[in-house]
Amino acid sequence: MTRVLLAPDKFKGSLGATAVAARLAAGLRSVGVEVDELPVADGGDGTVEAALAAGMREVALTATGPLGEPVRTRYAFDGETAVVEMAAVTGLEMLRPDATTARRATSRGLGEVLVNALEGGARTVVIGVGGSASTDGGAGMLAALGATLSGPDGALPDGGDALRRLASVGLDGLHRRLGEVDLVLASDVDNPLLGPHGAAAVYGPQKGADAAALADLEEGLACWVDLLERVRPGARDLAGSPGAGAAGGVGYGCLLLGARFRPGVEVVLELAGFERRLAGVDLVVTGEGSLDEQSLHGKAPVGVARAAAAHGVPAVAVCGRSTLDPRRAREAGFRSVHALADLEPDVERSMARAGELLEELGTRLAATL
């Protein structure tokens, strides 16, 4: 009997990775294929879901949302390792982005989740930082962890724009357990913090920032670095490190705390036991909503295909749509690509019917095996 390992990421706007795997599995099993379901992620939204699907338990709590409002959120924990997802507490999809929200959004809630994990006894904390709303250099996160940020008139308010008025930073009050844990920054981007390839310039526009807001956010991040250099020599060098610009600079804050930067999909596959579950598998099926040039730069499907190839297992991709030509798809590690658009060309109908189309795609894929 053919054995297939399903390791898809989410189809954004339609289905989470767990649901994608389940609908594909239904189609494959309908014609007798043996299936193992292993939803994955790349460090962005869906990272906690992937960790829970791999057997970790859920920890629920209330924390500060992107604009200071209380939100219900969660992380995954197995008694040793906590998997925290920024998108689940201060995510871009939790607000309607515009220039005002781009200036005000904070990473404080992520810090509050980290405090919960630290006080819960975690020895390793994986921080998935994709899908963030803020561009505050991780200032809000550090404040929740015990750092003090002061302006000319006292405590500094949250948000990247406020960093332009930063007068002093104190790190002596950081949580006592930060030096005892292994922090892992899981991200699919390796941008520096500042400059034309930095957090504000590259990702600010998708968070609603206009030209004026981008300039102010860049100024605030530069001020943040300057003040940190005074109390933590080497902070300026860290701003140029790969991953410092991830999640509006939360990557920088994590690096300041001693985090190791790793590609998100590698971390998720390791947590999920991907290598172990490849044993006896004939084919890996991976995918995401849109397979395109961006997928080639750290996204989950390519990471899955490469990990499978390293163990001699072929991989195919499923997606909502693909803009990769056959050559680029092969170079990325996919034996073939199967798109919902081939079954339903209308984008809105395809997204609305993604579940049933994935099931049909699973059945058709099984026929090729």
From TrEMBL:
<dbReference type="InterPro" id="IPR036129">
    <property type="entry name" value="Glycerate_kinase_sf"/>
</dbReference>
<dbReference type="InterPro" id="IPR018197">
    <property type="entry name" value="Glycerate_kinase_RE-like"/>
</dbReference>
<dbReference type="InterPro" id="IPR018193">
    <property type="entry name" value="Glyc_kinase_flavodox-like_fold"/>
</dbReference>
<comment type="similarity">
    <text>Belongs to the glycerate kinase type-1 family.</text>
</comment>
<dbReference type="InterPro" id="IPR004381">
    <property type="entry name" value="Glycerate_kinase"/>
</dbReference>
<dbReference type="Pfam" id="PF02595">
    <property type="entry name" value="Gly_kinase"/>
</dbReference>
<protein>
    <submittedName>
        <fullName>Glycerate kinase</fullName>
    </submittedName>
</protein>
<keyword id="KW-0418">Kinase</keyword>
<dbReference type="GO" id="GO:0016301">
    <property type="term" value="F:kinase activity"/>
</dbReference>
<keyword id="KW-0808">Transferase</keyword>
